[in-house]
Design brief:
alpha/beta; two-stranded antiparallel sheet; 11 strands
Length: about 325
C-alpha cells in the first residue's frame, strides 16, 4: 500500500498524467479498472490562462474520484504556489508538480524537465508550493536532463528536504524523451537515498515487467502511462499479477466493446459532440491497434464525423469479430 499524506493508495498503481489523454473520462475509467490513483493532465500555473476551455476541463471537478491529484506546471515559485492554492480550494486532494515533461514547448519555457538543470530553483519551487497548501504535494521527475547531467538523486534529496510527500520517477533523461530503453538504476539509487515514497515509471507494460521493476528498484509503487492508452485494463492485470504471480484472463470481446463504448460516451459528454468525435479517433486507434483488422477499422472510424456513426461502426466491428471467433472455435 502506498501512503501519500492521509491518503491510502490501493493498489499502489497510478495513472501517469498525459496531456491530451488523461482527461476526466479516461481517469474515471482507469480508476474503475484498477488504478489506485489517476493524476490529471498538467495545468498551467499561470491562473490568468485558466479561462480557456482546455484549462477549465483540467481543473478539479465535483465528480472527480478522490483522492483528486492535479498536476501543475510552471517556472515561477510564487505563481506555482498560487496555482496550488487555487487548485486546493477547488477540491484537489493532492498537488503534483511537473518536472518530468520532455515536450519541447514546455522545456523551451524552462518548465517541466528543464527545471532539473537548476537545483536551486527546484528547491525554491518545492518549498513555495509545500508552504502554500495544507494538502500533500508530490513531484514527478526524470532521472536528469541528459546522460551527462543525471542528477535524479540530488533532486530527490531536495524534494525530501522540502516536504514533498511522494516522488514519481521516469527512468529516462529529458534528452532520451521516450525512445531508448529505460534505465532503472537511478530509480533504485533514489529509493535508497530517500525515505519518501517513490513510484517507478517507464516501460511498465504488464504484470511481469511490473514485478521486475519493483524488485529491482525497491520502489513503493508504480506509475503507468503510455501502456494504458487503449488498455485501461492494465491496472487490473498488474494488480492481479502482483498479488498472485499469475496473469489474469484478458478482457473478453463483450467487455472490450462495453469499455470502448463507455469511453466514447464519456468523451462526447465531456467535450461535446464536435470535439468528442475528433478526440475519440486517437483513443479508438489505440484500442484497435492489436485487434484483427484494426488498422482498416481505424481508418474508417477516422472518417466519421458524428457520435451515432462512430457507435455503429464499433458495434458492427465487435459483432463481426465475435462471429469470427465463434466460427473459429466451432471449426
Amino acid at each position: 500500500m502506498l501512503k501519500i499524506g492521509p491518503h491510502q493508495i490501493q493498489p499502489a498503481l497510478a495513472l501517469a498524467p498525459m496531456a491530451g489523454v488523461t482527461d476526466r473520462t479516461f481517469r474515471h475509467l482507469c480508476r474503475r479498472l484498477g488504478a489506485g490513483l489517476a493524476v490529471s493532465e498538467m495545468v498551467t500555473a499561470d491562473t490568468r490562462l485558466w479561462n480557456t476551455a482546455k484549462s477549465r476541463l483540467r481543473l478539479p471537478h465535483a465528480d472527480d474520484q478522490a483522492p483528486v491529484s492535479v498536476q501543475i506546471v510552471g517556472t515561477e515559485p510564487a505563481q506555482l504556489a498560487e496555482a496550488a492554492k487555487r487548485n486546493a480550494d477547488l477540491g484537489a486532494d493532492i498537488i503534483d508538480i511537473n518536472m518530468g515533461c520532455p515536450a519541447k514547448k514546455v522545456c523551451s519555457k524552462a518548465a517541466g524537465s528543464a527545471l532539473l538543470r537548476d537545483e536551486r530553483l527546484v528547491g525554491d519551487i518545492l518549498a513555495a508550493v509545500v508552504n502554500a497548501v495544507t494538502v500533500p504535494v508530490t513531484l514527478k521527475i526524470r532521472t536528469g536532463w541528459s546522460a551527462e547531467e543525471r542528477n535524479g538523486v540530488a533532486i530527490a534529496r531536495i524534494a525530501e528536504a522540502s516536504g514533498i510527500e511522494a516522488l514519481a520517477v521516469h527512468g529516462r533523461t529529458r534528452a532520451c524523451r521516450f525512445k531508448p530503453t529505460v534505465e532503472y538504476d537511478t530509480i533504485r539509487d533514489i529509493c535508497r537515498a530517500v525515505r519518501l515514497p517513490v513510484l517507478a515509471n517507464g516501460d511498465i507494460v504488464d504484470g511481469p515487467s511490473a514485478q521486475r521493476v519493483l524488485e529491482y528498484t525497491g520502489a513503493d509503487g508504480l506509475m503507468i502511462g503510455r501502456a494504458a492508452q487503449g488498455n485501461p485494463w492494465i491496472f487490473r492485470e498488474v494488480a492481479h499479477y502482483l498479488a498472485t504471480g499469475a496473469s489474469p484472463e484478458p478482457p473478453d470481446l463483450a467487455e472490450q466493446q462495453a469499455v470502448l463504448l463507455e469511453h466514447l460516451e464519456g468523451l462526447y459528454s465531456l467535450y461535446g459532440n464536435w470535439s468528442g468525435v475528433r478526440i475519440a479517433r486517437k483513443h479508438v486507434g489505440w484500442y484497435l491497434q492489436a485487434q484483427p483488422d484494426g488498422q482498416t477499422v481505424r481508418q474508417q472510424f477516422n472518417r466519421l464525423d458524428n457520435p451515432d456513426s462512430q457507435r455503429q461502426l464499433i458495434r458492427a466491428y465487435f459483432t463481426r469479430v465475435s462471429a469470427q471467433q465463434e466460427s473459429d472455435e466451432a471449426a
